[in-house]
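Lab meeting, item 3. Inverse folding demo.
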């Protein structure tokens, strides 16, 4: 595995880029990985936490544990790295797209790695990398990026105070 990690930058985008280079290095070595968080505090100390949840109940418990850990460690930014299924829908198809069908159930699905970066100022960024597999193994394709500050949900809210 080459040591080609992106330096740890500031904010949501900085940790997301660092996490993306980490995911790429894992894929070059193993062709997959378990869901994980990379979390950094203001001293740029990075914690890597694998979260091999198997069901919704385990996920909810782990998110509570992570929220407490992030608070105790003074975490200022984190990234979630996970393998996902994605579907590309062209604008002309949106009108007839049935979003009740999960991507994993669609014929035109594609494996991807999703990176969500979050910081304590409320900034979020999301990157997706298609997984390309062949006889030599797996690599990550070109990044698809959503640089937005309107990403919400339980995975994006672990630094919020109650």
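The presenter then showed the designed sequence:
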């Amino acid at each position: 595995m080459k040591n080609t990690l992106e330096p740890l930058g500031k904010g949501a985008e900085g940790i997301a880029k660092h996490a993306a280079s980490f995911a790429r290095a894992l894929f070059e070595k193993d062709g997959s990985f378990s869901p994980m968080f990379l979390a950094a505090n203001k001293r740029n100390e990075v914690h890597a936490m694998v979260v091999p949840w198997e069901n919704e109940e385990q996920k909810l418990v782990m998110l509570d544990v992570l929220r407490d850990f992030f608070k105790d460690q003074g975490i200022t930014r984190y990234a979630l790295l996970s393998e996902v299924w994605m579907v590309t829908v062209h604008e002309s198809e949106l009108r007839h797209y049935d979003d009740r069908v999960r991507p994993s159930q669609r014929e035109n699905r594609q494996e991807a790695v999703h990176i969500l970066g979050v910081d304590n100022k409320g900034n979020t960024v999301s990157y997706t990398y298609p997984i390309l597999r062949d006889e030599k193994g797996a690599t990550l394709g070109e990044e698809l990026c959503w640089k937005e500050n309107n990403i919400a949900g339980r995975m994006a809210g672990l630094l919020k105070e109650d």
